[in-house]
Amino acid sequence: MSNQHLYLNLYENLKQQIIEGQYQSEDKFPSKRALSQHLSLSNTTIEHAYQLLLDEGYIYSKPRSGYFVSDIETLPIINRNSPHMNYSINQETSYNNIEDDGNNAETLAFNLSEIDAEYFPMQQFRKYARDAFEDDQLSLLQRTNPKGEWQLRQEIAHYLFNSRGVTCHPEQIIIGSSTEQLINLVTDILKKPQFYIENPSYPPIKKILDKKQINYKQISVEKTGIDLDEFKKHNYNAVYVTPSHQFPTGYVMNLKKRTQLIQWAQQSEQRYIIEDDYDSEFRYFGKPIPALQSLDTKDKVIYISTFSKSLYPSCRMAYLVLPKNLSSRYDKLSNKESNTVPAHLQKMVASFMESGSFERHLNKMRKVYKAKLKFIIDTLTPYQEQLEVNGAFAGMHFTLTVKNGLTLEECLERAKEHNLKIIPFNVYDNDLSEVKFILGFGGIPFSKLEKHTNALINTLINH
């Protein structure tokens, strides 16, 4: 059993004991040295498991006193019916004898657009839900501002400035139910837009442009970002990009190309950049690159992001930051539709952000997803001659290129044999000649991470 497997399993079982009440709030937790001796595990294994528990708030440390169990009422809620290993640190048993749940028929899926819901602070969010429906919130029952609730827009402005360097006034922000809805609105605001879009790209953007019969050119994406040289072949006035973690390749646009893109936009009054910063909260390695909007000095960047990854997918809430002149143009639009996000949900999210809980939640989830990604990448590293990983510096998906001669059909057939669901990259790029897959990891529980990764190796590796 690998050391990675040991510390992840130890972490899962200790967490489960806390959740199930084997420890009470403020109980003293075993010292790392005592637990290491009791289980005959290395100090490093214990330290890694304890660090995860610390990062996620299950335990806390007191200087020179040791570790203590956190307030149970504030701990993340988990699915108590999920399979877990029956193990207690008080049992006279060998840790290495713990067995998996043995459910070989289970589908192992590297799905996109999934979060790890176990760690969502449901108790806190429930409190804000109660507050939103109190008697003194009767104003929330009325028709709201088409741009959204002021308190939420104010909190988003503060958050964007502190986290992404985006400078804006709440009046420039519009709340919507999805990125697609907001992009559709942008096409109404821009005058006779003609678009450059990434190739491959986020599928809804093409659907919107096709439906509205707006001209667009697909521009190839390089490892450093969209190929700006191809812009010279046409004279279009808008570009849609996902620079922080390109979808679907996962590539990150470098700073030089970001600067060149802004310079392109500034060369004409009619040119604008639509920056979709959809999962920029999650960058795991290297220094974060600032948002395009933060580099722009002439109001040429339209900024879009969503709460789907930072909160939860069913939240159905996104937001748009318009440059000042386009915000004025929006205000003058006739027949603006009403805001599509329930006012009470907006109030709940605003309170969650105002309390600081949103930032703490993001910090926790960043560590959770980084630990998952690191486990997968480290496990795949011995096979790097057969598998090439890309796009793993940020976000909640990466790509895997198979370089050992297996065909796409062979890989998919072998995936069926291992009950594995993986998404071929050619779903997004029909012209792709490589055997390549796009893998989401956010929704895979720690306890099932090794099983998923082993199935991936058994499917794609020629032994």
Automatic annotation (TrEMBL):
PROSITE patterns: HTH_GNTR. GO terms for molecular function: DNA binding; DNA-binding transcription factor activity; pyridoxal phosphate binding; transaminase activity. Residues 4-72 form the HTH gntR-type domain. The keyword Phosphoprotein does not apply. The keyword Manganese does not apply. Keywords: Aminotransferase, DNA-binding, Pyridoxal phosphate, Transcription, Transcription regulation, Transferase. Its cofactor is pyridoxal 5'-phosphate. SUPFAM superfamilies: PLP-dependent transferases (SSF53383), Winged helix' DNA-binding domain (SSF46785). Signal peptide: none annotated. It comes from the Bacteria. Gene3D superfamilies: Type I PLP-dependent aspartate aminotransferase-like (Major domain) (3.40.640.10), Winged helix-like DNA-binding domain superfamily/Winged helix DNA-binding domain (1.10.10.10). PANTHER family: HTH-TYPE TRANSCRIPTIONAL REGULATORY PROTEIN GABR. In the C-terminal section; belongs to the class-I pyridoxal-phosphate-dependent aminotransferase family. This is PLP-dependent aminotransferase family protein. The lineage of its organism: Bacteria, Bacillati, Bacillota, Bacilli, Bacillales.
